[in-house]
Amino acid sequence: MNEEKKIAGLYIRVSTEDQAREGFSLKEQEERLRAMCQYKGYEVYKVYKDAGISAKTGNYRPKFEELLQDIREKKCNTIVVLKLDRLTRSVYDWENILKFLEENDAYLDCANDDINTTNANGKMISRILTSVSQQEIERTSERTKIGLAGAIKEGHIPGHCPLGYKRVDKKMVPDPLTKDIVIRIFQMYFEGNSYQKIANKFNEEKVLNKTNWRDNTILNMISNPLYKGDYLHGKTGKKATYYEDVIEPIVSKEMWENCQAQQKKNSRSYSRNKTYLFLQKLLCPNCGAILGGKATYKKKFDRTYYYYGCEHCKNNIKETTIEESIKELLGDIFEYDSVVNNFFLPLLKNKLENPKEKLTKEINNLNAKKERVKRAYINGSFTLEEHDSEIEYLDKTINELERKILEQENIKDLKFRPEDILIKRDMDFINQVKIPMLYKAIEDCWNDLTREDKARIIMNYIDDIEVEQDSLKNWIVKSVNFRTTFFKDFKKLYEDGFIDCKRKFIYEKNGIRIDSKVRYSEFLSAKQVYRHFKSLNECYDVKFYKGVYYKDREEFDTVPLTNGEVIIRMFPTEIDDDKKEILGMGMFTTKNNPNDIKVDIPDLFEMIPDIDDGNKPVLLQSNEMDY
Question: Which class for 415: exposed (0-12), middle (13-18), buried (19 or more C-beta within 10 A)?
């Protein structure tokens, strides 16, 4: 080095606690550097400390920048560090530092590395040492990434648990105390509620004893793939990694994807003080945009009329036109919703997802928390108001868990089979045939629903509706596209033969050929058909006929039906391989009068015959249970 006076700027840095434990603490670094300066006769100008900052490229180190500025202003001329990696571990950054030292007639001295920047050999050695440091940090980074990826795949998700999850043995798992709140948020958004509306509702209800729910909170939850079991690591980096199926999901992937698509439809501009049945569902036939809704009130008739139109294409479509054209379809969807989603699936889901052991454990934890709250109040840590508020919330949560356990007790002995769905639907159909007035009084039909309930059905099951004009310029429905979740569930039940749909059939009745739509289900085994037949016969006089079905002319050939005989449904009695032109077919029929009903009529609306239990009908008191 030159003989000029060395005025030193001591630079010390530590980035992790591990480095501190290994002898790299700020205090130890400063002591060693001051001792070196005293030995070499350097004048110490100032100590520059960067704590908790890595030397990776791009990291801003305020004290290091201050040191460089002091060198530019000739306040000091030598950088003194413990090791070269305290300055940088990047070859690129080191070249910039060397250039800076040359331009400002400054030097570098390292206590643990023999670095001399005043000659070519010293610079070469510094470059080699920097390359080794850079390789070390890159290898460490690779090992960390591999270890992190393995941990994530095992369910060890870094960071805090979002609402609905908790940690058990360091793994993120659904929290039975809060997961229902997450499910409710997705369901409300799926039904067309905005983020703000959901937040306002939660604040009003003081969900989780909070009144600070925000629309951004709801937005972040809806957008978080963790809730469908996936994890995105490195959201803000350029090389983000997506991991699928790493934890147990709270909502299905179909529900999550549908909610992402719903973001394009849910906007505050759609907020209305009236309920529009097809809001966000009708597509403009000209430009494909979602039609907006408007309403006019006629005082003379005391009635509100609803319309849909595109502000760009200036079309105007009556709501009643759309509803009337697909009313039969809507009625079928409502029947499916009533029987499957509102009756069976909640029971089955409740049975599967609410194990008594987990709920009991959570109740014990909450009772222990209540005791801690009481002790905190006695010790003066809580005010009386805070104590009462927290106890009220804990009691409410405990009561909810106890209710779920009671539901478990009520349904644990009920034996549900997929066939029961078809039995319930057949019984509803028979009741409508035999006792239509009572059926209408007890069971809702599409026309009896409120506008809010109709809108809910349409929102839950229909994705969008395409309309067009016929040759007379009348608006008609071109196609109805269903939600993925609904179509998937319905398709599976239908293919397994456990649900029916309507199909065109030609058959003979009283010597007359009838061309009509008949309820139809797919193939069931002979054992399943026999069990189903016996179940229905526990309550009504039901007949079974076999025949053949000619595919080309959609004609069913069997014994002619008698006067007053109604087809409950038809189904194939053999598997259709698509090559057969003639298919074996069966059908159930009954009379359109109540004379052959074999049980108390009110029981028909809340029971399913169970032929495996002494041939006695099992009453399902669903009206006494809150699902």
Answer: exposed
Which amino acid, one-letter code, is at 522? E
Beta-sheet strands, E only, within 310-380: 317-318
DSSP 447: G
Asked if residue 549 lies in contact with residue 511, where contact means CB atoms within 8 angstroms, the answer is: no
b/e burial code for range 142-171 (CB count within 10 A of at least 16 → b): eeeeeeeeeebeebbbeeeebbbbbeeeeb
Known catalytic residue: 516? no
Paired strand residues for 47: 10
pLDDT tens digits for 516-571?
Answer: 999 999 999 999 999 999 999 999 999 999 999 999 989 999 988 988 999 999 99
Q: Can you give the pLDDT at residue 5?
A: 84
Q: Which of 442, 383, 423, 397 is nearest to 605 (CA)?
A: 442
Give the integer Cα–Cα distance in Å for 167 and 251: 18
What are the start-end ranges of the E strands in 299-349? 303-309, 317-318
Among candidate residues 128, 126, 131, 110, the one with its CA nearest the CA of residue 10: 110
- Among 257-261, 281-285, 594-598, 607-611, top mean pLDDT goes to 594-598
Say how many C-beta atoms besides its own lie within 10 A of residue 305's C-beta: 13
Residue type, 514: I
549 bridge partner residues: 556, 583
User: Cβ distance 291 to 312 under 8 Å?
Assistant: no
pLDDT in tens, 378-428: 777 778 887 888 888 888 888 878 777 766 665 555 456 778 888 988 999
Q: Residue 552 carries which DSSP code?
A: T
Please report, for residues 410, 411, 437, 619, the alpha-carbon distance to residue 623 in angstroms, rounded to integers and kept in the order given: 13, 13, 20, 11
Give the integer Cα–Cα distance in Å for 70 and 566: 98
Q: Give the pLDDT band (50/70/90) at residue 16.
A: low
Answer yes or no: are the C-beta atoms of 78 and 70 closer than 8 Å: no
Residue 289 contacts residue 312 (beta carbons within 8 Å): yes
Give the span between the Cα atoms of 550 and 544, in whole angstroms. 19
Count helices and strands (H / E) in the chain. 19, 22
- Count of other CB atoms within 10 angstroms of residue 219: 17
CA gap 277, 288 in Å, rounded: 19
A 10 A CB-CB count for 462 gives 20
How far is the C-alpha of 474 from the C-alpha of 471, rounded, in Å? 7
Which residues, other chains included, contact 472 with Cβ-Cβ below 8 Å and sequence gap of 6+? none
Closest C-alpha among 165, 206, 160, 210 to residue 183:
165
Kindly report which listed range (203-212, 215-224, 252-261) carries the lowest average pLDDT score.
Answer: 252-261
For 270, the 3-state DSSP assignment is: helix
DSSP letters spanning 497-530 = TSS-EEEEEEEEETTEEEEEEEEE-----HHHHH
CA distance 377 to 384: 7
**Which one from 15, 25, 389, 622 is the annotated catalytic residue?**
15
